[in-house]
Amino acid sequence: MSEAPDHPPILVVDDQEKLLRLVVMLLSRIGFPDVDGVTSGTEAMEKLRQRRYALVISDLDMEPMDGLTLLREIRGDDTLMNTPFILTEASFEFEDINLAHQAGADAFILKPFDIAVLKTKLKNVINRKPRKREAPIAAQSTLSQDFPMLGKY
């Protein structure tokens, strides 16, 4: 059974079951009927290893694995690293955004969701180009060749 490209599967992760059901319902209403929901990062990783998702939408503040840890797990896995990832939270601190950006978050959405913002973010994130693994050793040697003074510090 092939999945329709206009209805890509989405995985929603939120440890609050009522909010999880609400997000799944909202996604269905705006044209994404193929949505799975789980209440923990561990369950999310299990699902991600069983099925390819077009997007993960995860709450930031969860226990025991928070959304940032889940994001890092996904980005660290060669098979999953290109899975688009949106973090959600009722409020974001600058440090949260900075850490999530460094970890590879594709977007942030504040709760409660504004439908127009949700649609726009989904479209932008799902259509984003795949990531490429950086080669840190090669990058370091290139930098030291191009800028020999860097090796002195």
CATH superfamily: Response regulator
Run of helices and strands: EHEHEHEHEHH
Number of strands: 5
Overall shape: globular
- How much of the sequence is in beta strands? 5-15%
Strands of the widest sheet, in order across it, are 2-1-3-4-5
Mean pLDDT: 83
Determine the number of helices (DSSP H or I, runs of at least 4 residues): 6
> How many domains, as an integer?
1
Report, as a whole number of angstroms, the end-to-end distance: 57 Å
Helix content percent band? 40-55%
Low-confidence spans: 135-153
Question: What is the architecture at the second tier of CATH?
Answer: 3-Layer(aba) Sandwich
Keywords: Phosphoprotein, Transcription, Transcription regulation
Protein name: Response regulator
Structure overview:
Keywords: Phosphoprotein, Transcription, Transcription regulation. It comes from Methylobacterium komagatae. The modification 4-aspartylphosphate is found at residue 59. This is Response regulator. Residues 9-126 form the Response regulatory domain. This protein is α/β, with parallel strands linked by helices. The protein starts with 9 loop residues before the first strand and ends in a 7-residue tail after the last helix. It is built from six helices and five strands; from the N terminus they run E-H-E-H-E-H-E-H-E-H-H. The chain has a single domain, classed as Response regulator (Rossmann fold). The chain is globular. It has a five-stranded parallel sheet with strand order 2-1-3-4-5, with helices on both faces.
